């Protein structure tokens, strides 16, 4: 709240980024959850299928079903699982990129609008106070 005391216009401009960030992360979270929800049952099926094959090696070997079961595993289970895993990985990468994008957006907005505020009479110390208050990774 000290940001609104020192440079209220700058704090208001930076405060406007909060709804944008929340909407963006809500959309990415929904997309991530839908991908994970679709992937989890298939992941369970693959692990159960492999466990069943390994636990009954004698039956698989005696009926010469190895190649057939491996083809079924590859075409029916592993290909869709790879596609869903790529979707999950893409979502996680977008979430990470969005986090850093928001951090850089806050910095750039602060310095851009801070320079306008300094030109209009706000002291540099007040602008620096607001920029360090809103910086998400300032302690790193």
Describe what you observe in this structure.
The chain has a single domain (about 1-135), classed as Up-down Bundle (ABC transporter transmembrane region fold), CATH 1.20.1560.10. It contains six helices and no strands. The protein has helices at about 1-5, 10-15, 15-55, 55-60, 65-120, 125-135. The two termini are about 20 Å apart.
Q: How do the helices and strands line up, and which of them pair or pack?
A:
Layout: H1 2-6, H2 8-15, H3 17-55, H4 57-62, H5 66-119, H6 124-134
Tell me the number of helical segments per DSSP (H or I, 4 or more residues long).
Answer: 6
Q: Residue-averaged pLDDT, rounded?
A: 82
Question: Strand percentage, roughly?
Answer: under 5%
The number of strands is 0
| Cα shape | rod-shaped
Q: Could you name the ranges where pLDDT drops below 50 across 5 or more consecutive residues?
A: 135-140
CATH architecture assignment: Up-down Bundle
How many domains, as an integer? 1
Q: So, the CATH homologous superfamily?
A: ABC transporter type 1, transmembrane domain
> What structural class should be given to the helix and strand makeup?
mainly alpha
CATH class: Mainly Alpha
Helix content: over 70%
**Which fold name corresponds to the CATH topology?**
ABC transporter transmembrane region fold
Q: What Rg, in angstroms, do the CA atoms define?
A: 26 Å
Largest sheet: none
Secondary-structure element series: HHHHHH
Calculate the terminal CA-CA distance, rounded to whole Å: 22 Å
């Amino acid at each position: 709240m000290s940001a609104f005391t020192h440079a209220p216009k700058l704090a208001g401009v930076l405060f406007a980024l909060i709804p944008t960030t929340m909407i963006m992360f809500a959309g990415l979270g929904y997309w991530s959850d839908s991908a994970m929800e679709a992937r989890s049952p298939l992941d369970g099926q693959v692990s159960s299928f492999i466990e069943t094959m390994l636990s009954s090696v004698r039956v698989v070997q005696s009926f010469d079903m190895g190649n057939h079961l491996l083809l079924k595993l590859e075409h029916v289970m592993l290909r869709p699982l790879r596609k869903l895993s790529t979707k999950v990985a893409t979502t996680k990468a977008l979430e990470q990129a969005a986090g850093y994008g928001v951090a850089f957006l806050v910095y750039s907005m602060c310095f851009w609008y801070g320079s306008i505020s300094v030109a209009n009479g706000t002291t540099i110390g007040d602008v620096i106070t607001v920029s360090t208050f809103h910086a998400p990774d300032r302690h790193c």
